[in-house]
Amino acid sequence: MTKSQQYFQDMVEYNKELFDEFKEIHDKFALDEKKYQQAFNEVGEKVQGIIRKYENLLCQHSEGGKYGKFSEKTADTFWKYIRGAFPKIDFIGMK
């Protein structure tokens, strides 16, 4: 298991209630964007805050030095897992 995958699993596990709520609204949003846009954005903002926190934890040690490119790839891999679970994640905040 990669470090990115481990951080993703830890993030979802430690914030299970929030991610379960987001999964439910995410799936409804995927079926009817107009009807669920507001709820999706409200819960999505909380989820984005958690995601940013874990992304920072994942990449914080390698960003400044000679591993900067590695950090970028690590973040991309982390987001790949997020988008795999929540394909509409990038629509948070859009109108």
Overview of the molecule:
This protein has 95 residues and is mainly alpha-helical. The protein has one domain (3-89). Helices cover 77% and strands 0% of the residues. The chain contains four helices and no strands. The chain has helices at residues 3-14, 16-31, 33-59, 68-85. Helix 1 (3-14) packs across helix 3 (33-59), helix 1 (3-14) crosses helix 4 (68-85) and helix 2 crosses helix 3. The chain is elongated.
Q: Domain count, please report it.
A: 1
Order of helices and strands: HHHH
Mean pLDDT: 90
Strand content: under 5%
Structural class: mainly alpha
**Poorly predicted sequence stretches spanning 5 or more consecutive residues:** none
How far apart lie the N and C ends?
Answer: 37 Å
Share of helical residues? over 70%
The helix tally amounts to 4
Could you say which overall geometry the principal axes of the C-alpha atoms support?
elongated
Topology of helices and strands:
Blueprint: H1 3-14, H2 16-31, H3 33-59, H4 68-85
